[in-house]
Amino acid sequence: xxxxxxxxxxxVFKNMPLSFHKMAxxxxxxxxxxxxxxxxxxxxxxLFKATTLSPELLDKTAKDIGLDMTKFQQxxxxxxxxxxxxxxxxxxxxxxxxxxxxxxxxxxxxNERSMQGFQMLIDEELxxxxx
Length: 131
Hints:
Layout: H1 2-5, H2 24-35, H3 40-49, H4 55-64, H5 69-76, H6 79-94, E1 104-105, E2 108-109, H7 115-129
């Protein structure tokens, strides 16, 4: 889906660590710290491939992708990361997000979560933009 639309779409990730998942907040903080070194998606993709999250995995993943570990440790406990996550959570609440993942295309919530559903909504939004 992304490949056939790469000229027309931009993927934006927002944080919403769920309180009942004990590793959600540490994982989000770690991913934001990786982002501060320009490696958010690489870090994100590796975490999503993992079967279980642990503090050790968060550090190992950072090392494996070549992050500066001192900066990584500082950034994930920084006020900047805290504020980014808090802002994303407020935005999610304001948008009516109740769980993850929730997907929006041009502000419209994707309900039909199939490849055809994605493409249909993208096509509708592209048609609107060309009017």
